[in-house]
């Protein structure tokens, strides 16, 4: 009931925003929709004409699985709306196009199939990023049908080279059991955005993973730069790579979509979306969608998991621009998952109980005491204005309100010790009370964050130059408090009473200022393109409060100010067309990451901590030949000033950590990806990643057992949780309404400690799918039945690794077991 009430409150707030937006739009005159551009495309082969169109309209055209054959185009010239120009190019070809994301269209083939021939296959796995100076790929909705309806958006990353995405289960219901690494960098070092809004995700408490807001059905496009994000990427921790998620636009007609999923671990998921036409002639169009997911953990069927989403988007197009208002609400409730050892045995330090034992010391790990919840809301207003040809202004103001909680059981002996430590340090204090002997005590962490920001950019095409100027402003206020309380006779935590002790009460204010400039020049009829740019970053942090339990014991309030800045982070790159289908690319980038906020609350904050830095070099070759596309890239990364977090292993003493610079890491590797449609009914894809990430030098570290500084001999050792080899293969077959697919993903051996003394073995996962789709005509749309089997061979494996950098004799990582075989049946429908 509480979840429903919160959802209704979020919906009411969305309604107020939509009403205000509608009032503004009511006074605006609607003109011809779509941006305009100047075209000069002569009559020629349609495939070549579409290539020129993409360059002149600055729109990505996806045709990888559409057979253009010998089709011709009459060409187009003059200043026209971009979509009208595309329609003229396709005129008479029996092809049509569909807008699937921001500046991306898919060309669809509606020609009748020849007798005894399969229907053309319209979907492709990945679009190799033509024209980019970095290793770049784009995943489009055409691939999504091979996955179960509603799987988290991160799921689509695993088919890409260099990416290791781990999920707690196929639906990622436990965020703390999921991880993402790209070329050795973790998700805390990768820039992420959603519809232009930066999603800082250094940790899950202050961060906002995209799966908190975005249903897979609403994802239109995902762009990934494996090596280094573009200078335009808003982020203050992106050392390697970027992820840009784009949600779909309103369709502009009455349309409903729905899906029902049921399967393993009592999972049920409902999704529904309603699109509207223009609300009045020349008015805005919109969609409203929502989803509800419920399930249990695969290794504890008593532990429930729940996720709810609500999304609203309203768009208004004008002759020279557009406005798009978005509101997203995410609600999550879950139980913590069991930890494991590298050998697959249950971790003795975090062995959650499914039933009470009667021993309060042991019952502190009763599963129902370890729960988490998040309530997140995000508003954004995408604005685009083209006052004259070649000049484009874009801005995205946004506001985010995030709240959360986390409960955990605390052993009586730990509570008594924490209380006694506080009283020993300050004997006269009266703000706490002793453990009352009522059994297990509990802690409750409360989280609150408010983010307000703006991204803005100016694009200007001037002759051979394509100039980009822009910036990012943000103010982020975040607080977290973690006290321990007694419980009453009925086992309820006594939140209204004085706490037994306090781990911390932290308040962070973070101000971000980022600016960038970039120029791309084209030579020799655009066969050679050179890009040069830089970005500057200023991050000012202010910390106030009780930093840790030691400060609480001493009744000491901390006030810390810190500024990390680098006003010149250059990026240089280029592409060279070797012919009609192949091109070389290269890129050099310097990146900078501010010191994490948690370092300011550590037990021994070091004001001389240096910001992390990286130098990224990419060099590669691409080939795009209609039904076949491939890329081969090599890279080198010089990662310096690595910041290490040392955390005490006792789960009851979370928060006792130390941060320090520990040297650098050298990373180099090769990535190969190819995608092939040998026949209209077949699709083949594969990728291979070779990576070597090594520590450059030994470093001094802190032994939490002896409480002394010791030398950690890691020079030449491999970075934890970074496999040297990864590979994937994908096969999809479709004949008329039937389709079937298989995916294999190999993940090599991974280490869990910096000494390379502990590791988890390599493994290969196989996923299978089968579906049948019924076309119901223009108004009935389609009906789709689908069966998905994940980990079809029921392979036991370790998924997410939480590496350890400790140097005591018992140093080892924490592990989450990968989900066993999971089977899901889904029914999806669409009506117009």
From TrEMBL:
Q: Please list the coiled coil stretches.
A: none
Q: How does it sit in the membrane?
A: Multi-pass membrane protein
Signal sequence, renumbered to the chain: 1-31
Indicate yes or no for the key word Transport: yes
Q: Where is the Secretin/TonB short N-terminal domain?
A: 59-110
Annotated Gene Ontology MF terms? siderophore uptake transmembrane transporter activity
Q: What does the UniProt entry say about where the protein is found?
A: Cell outer membrane
Q: Name one Pfam family in it.
A: TonB_dep_Rec_b-barrel
Q: Which InterPro entries match?
A: Beta-barrel_TonB, Beta-barrel_TonB_sf, Plug_dom, Plug_dom_sf, Secretin/TonB_short_N, TonB-dep_rcpt-like
Question: Which GO CC annotations does the UniProt entry carry?
Answer: cell outer membrane
Alphabetized Gene3D superfamilies for the sequence: 3.55.50.30, TonB-dependent receptor, beta-barrel domain, TonB-dependent receptor, plug domain
* UniProt xrefs under PROSITE patterns: TONB_DEPENDENT_REC_3
Q: Which PANTHER family match?
A: CATECHOLATE SIDEROPHORE RECEPTOR FIU (PTHR32552:SF89), FERRICHROME IRON RECEPTOR-RELATED (PTHR32552)
Q: Which family does it belong to?
A: Belongs to the TonB-dependent receptor family.
Protein known as: TonB-dependent Receptor Plug Domain
